[in-house]
Every structure is written in C-alpha cells, then in structure tokens.
Amino acid sequence: MPICFSATASFTAGIALLAIGSITVRRADKWGEVPYAAIPVIFSVQQLVEGFLWRSLPGQDTTTHVLTITYVLFSNVLWPIYVPMAVWLLEPRSARRRTIAWTIAAGSAVGIFFLAAILAHPATSAIKGMHIKYHIPHHHDPIAVAVYAAATCLAPLLSTHKTVRLFGIVLTASMIVAAIVYLKWFASVWCFFAAVVSAMIYLHFPARPCRRNLHGSG
To answer: Residue 217: its pLDDT value, please?
Structure first.
C-alpha cells in the first residue's frame, strides 16, 4: 500500500512529534543533550509548515511563497548544520568529536550553498503526482546532495552512543528509499521519513526513576 502524503499526514506527524519532543527535551539532563533531544520538536514545526503548505497549494500567493521558503530553509539549510552539531555536542569522546567535526564543516558548507541559492533564485513548490515538489535553481546538485547526505547521515553513524547510531542507520535507510522510490519529490518525502524516524530519539532518553528527597520530612 503506498504511503499517503497529504496535509492530514503532515499535521498528524507534526502533532505526534511535538508530543514526543516535549518528553525528550524534558528528559535531557545536560545542556549538551538539549539540541539532540529537540530534533523531534523542530521536525514537528517543519511538518506543520508543510501541512499548511498543502492547504495553500495549488495557489501561488504570498502565503504559499512564505511557507515554501520556510520549508526549504528547514530542509536544505538547517538540517545539514544542526544534525551533526547536535551529535557532536552529545558525543563524550574527544577523538570521536574531532571526527564528527568534519561533518559539521561539510554540513555548514552545503547549508550556506543552499542558502545562497535560495537568496539568488526564488524557491518554488507545486503538487505533482500527489506529492509536493520543491525546486531551488542551482548548479552542482549531485555534489550538494552527496555532501548533504554525508553531513546528516554520517554524523549519527559516527557516534559512540548505540541509540544515536541506530538513528543514523534508519535515517540512511529512509534516505535510500526516498531516493529510489520518490526521487522527484525527494525534499518533501525524505524530510517526512526523517521526521518519523526522529521519534527514535525517544530511545536515547529513557524515563529515569524519581530521585528520593533525602532532605524532606516524614
């Protein structure tokens, strides 16, 4: 059965991820864990933006343009920088942090590249074949996509945390599926897959037992 992509799917994913993200953020013990814990929350906002974009299309008014720009800023600019940075902050081993730092550099480079492309040429979106197709005119697309994938997928795969590596494995698998089956709508479909996969971040923040109040009365 084909996956149904629609405003309803985006809104449902957005609300569910907001609930999951609110839990993971509250369970983060250290400030360095917060960016990783917040990934579902950010994906929630992105999916809600796409839900409203579904409702706005096929019109091409100011609202549609703003929603399109907002979405591609998330998908093309934020994630290749944010994901490796969040993984780097979470990593306890200095040697591995130095390796992950290379993915931050790669993600920053490709994020800036896409930002320049968005500023130079208007990004557009349209419903094509029951999916949303985003278009950002730019050259060197295969190279940019390869660097983007290296930054967002390789960073969690390099982590010493098993739950983070598992997230990286499933994220990479979702990218491959999106590239093979939904290449024309890659930006929309892979971000939806990645948003759903981000629920796995919950596994890294298990419920902790309540600490007994040793100074309380009774």
So the answer is: 38
Residue 180 lies in a domain: yes
Its domain, for residue 181, covers: 7-204
Residue 71 CB neighbours (<10 A):
23
Q: Kindly give the parts of the chain with pLDDT less than 50.
A: 1-2, 210-218
Q: Please state the pTM of the whole predicted model.
A: 0.89
pLDDT at residue 26 in the model? 95
Q: Which of 16, 86, 73, 6 is nearest to 46 (CA)?
A: 73
What total of structural domains would you count in the chain? 1
